[in-house]
Amino acid sequence: MKNWKIHKDNDWLMLETGKSINGKVVITSSVHGDEITGVLLIKNLLADLKKLSTKLGVQISITPFVNLDGIKETLREDPVSKKDLNRCFFKRNPPKQVRKLKSLLSGASFVIDIHCFPHTKHALTGLLFTSESNKEISRINRNAVTAFNPDICWSLDFKDLDKEKKGSMGEWLVENDIPGIAIETDSPEFLNNEDVVDISKKIICTVEVALGKSISRNNNISSLKRFVVKAEQSGIFIPLVQPLQHISKDQKIGKLISFDLSKVNVSSSVSGRVVFSKVAKFVNKDEKLVGIGIK
Ligand SMILES: [Zn+2]
Question: What local confidence, expressed as pLDDT, does residue 120 receive?
Answer without folding.
Answer: 62
